[in-house]
Amino acid sequence: MNQNQINVTEAVLAACFSGKASPEEQAAVKFWRQASPANESQFRAYALVWERSGSFDPSLHIDMEAAYSRVRQKAGLPAPLLRAGNRIYYLTRIAAVSAVLLVSLLLFRNGTGDTDFDQSATATVENQAFHLADGTVVWLRNGSKLMYHTPEGGRSQRKVRLSGDGYFEVAHNPDVPFRVELDGGGTVEVLGTEFNISQTDSGTSVLVKSGKVRFSPTKGDYPVLTASQKAVFSKKDSRLTIKGAASMNELSWHTGGLEFVSTPLSKVIEDLEQFYQVKITMKNSELNTCLHTAPLTNSPLEEVLRVLEVAYGLQSSKVSDNEYVLTGGYCGR
Amino acid sequence: MAENEEKYWLERLKEGDEAALRKIFDAFYPDLVSRVLRIIPDPDTCQDIAQDVIVALWNRRDSLDIHSSLGAYLNRAALNRALNYLKSRNRNVVDASAELPDAADVVDIDAVSAEQKEELESRLNEAIERLPERCRAVFALSRFEDLSHSEISERLGISVKTIENQITKAMKLLRASLRDTT
């Protein structure tokens, strides 16, 4: 018989599983499977190996800023620009270039100024905006408080004190650093940039949306945080942990919705659960590492789920009032 | 990146706008690195390859003619570079031939619960990481990329026989890694 001339090796099985086997190989495998129960059981063991190995996805922490500066270097682009807020970056690159020089100077200048503030503002609703004299805008969470100076007196520093949580869009002024003293201890010092501060009993977290920020939870030398980095200071063990933020969605109280940029689906699900206050179970763990990108939205959850259904071939079903189950699906651009 | 978004940034890239380079880098770089990392277990090499792919896109922006999606185009470019890298290393790689256990089974395939499947996956992941360099590369190319054994052979300049042997070896080693699962 013709089929017998093909020796069914693991490689032939692999070709079969990947759909690359020739018709002859397929026939040989079929014949071989039927020849004995032992062969059939071997076939199934290898099918399992093949199928389950599909989830192999080694992870790596990538320093995006370092990698991008390598790209610029390799492409022969001129010295790096400071990424100071998208608007600034796109519209006034010259200003951004001058900022680079000043960041290094100012971040290391230890100013001394008076800290007795003569003004204060407390948010009475969520995401309330406060405009400071220098053009900086601060959005406070309900109940959070900001103390600041009146502009007269020609102060050499821009300095405020924050109790609670606030989102800052700091006006670009390379001559005067902006400094936030924290109720929970420490300071955050910046130039024109956007970042979020969140203070709880257990500690403080600073999430940088754009630009550069230095968060000093105590006296001492702390690294400068760049865009998409999040620093969490734990009061319990006085440790500062810096990591890449998987998504910016802890800002949803400020932005009013969720947005995803190459966010792993497992994190997308987590953010959706938090934002919509529901429980979502995704059955297919192979999808956990798919990277999802979607613009800012605050559509009803059903619509968001429908987008996921279409994008990943999922089926969603509502199993109770606030519980959803996603089944099936596949990755792939 | 949505299709229309992709088009927009590609147009900006063609105009030489660096903001587009950054946008495309942010959207695709991590994915490119992890794809190559499946084949080549060296993070620095993988980052280098992914960077070169993005740089080449920038350098050729005047003459780009992309018919597929940008993601597919970049993935293909990364795969080509990974294959070239592997080919250039061919001469230097000596695979220590591991003693292959002849598979006595293993798992009752029909009675694998969802929980056990996860356990199996993590065992397999570790086992793939442990495969000898060339064995892993060949297996990953066959498992994760749309390449037949003869295409892999051609691209790496290794005989089909060797490719098949490497895949057989990988399959056996991976299957053996499931051995003591109950």
How would you characterize the overall build of this protein?
- The complex is a heterodimer of chains A (333) and B (182).
- Chain A folds into 3 domains: 2-55, no CATH class; 106-245, Jelly Rolls (Sandwich); 251-328, Phage tail protein beta-alpha-beta fold.
- Chain A has 9 helices and 19 strands.
- Chain A has helices spanning 10-17, 23-35, 37-52, 64-74, 86-91, 93-107, 252-255, 265-276, 301-312; strands at residues 119-122, 128-131, 137-140, 145-148, 158-163, 166-169, 178-182, 187-190, 194-200, 203-210, 212-216, 224-226, 229-234, 239-244, 258-264, 279-282, 291-297, 314-320, 323-328.
- In chain A, the strands form 4 sheets. A 7-stranded mixed β-sheet of chain A has the order 1-4-5-7-8-11-12, with no helix packed on it.
- In chain A, α2 crosses α3.
- The radius of gyration of chain A is 27 Å and the shape is elongated.
- The model of chain A is unreliable at 80-114 (pLDDT under 50).
- Chain B is built from 8 helices and no strands.
- Chain B has helices spanning 3-14, 18-39, 43-59, 70-89, 114-130, 133-144, 149-156, 160-177.
- Chain B is globular, with a radius of gyration of 20 Å.
- Chain B starts with a helix and ends in a 5-residue tail after the last helix.
- The chains are: A alpha+beta (333), B mainly alpha (182).
- The interface between A and B is large, with 46 and 62 residues.
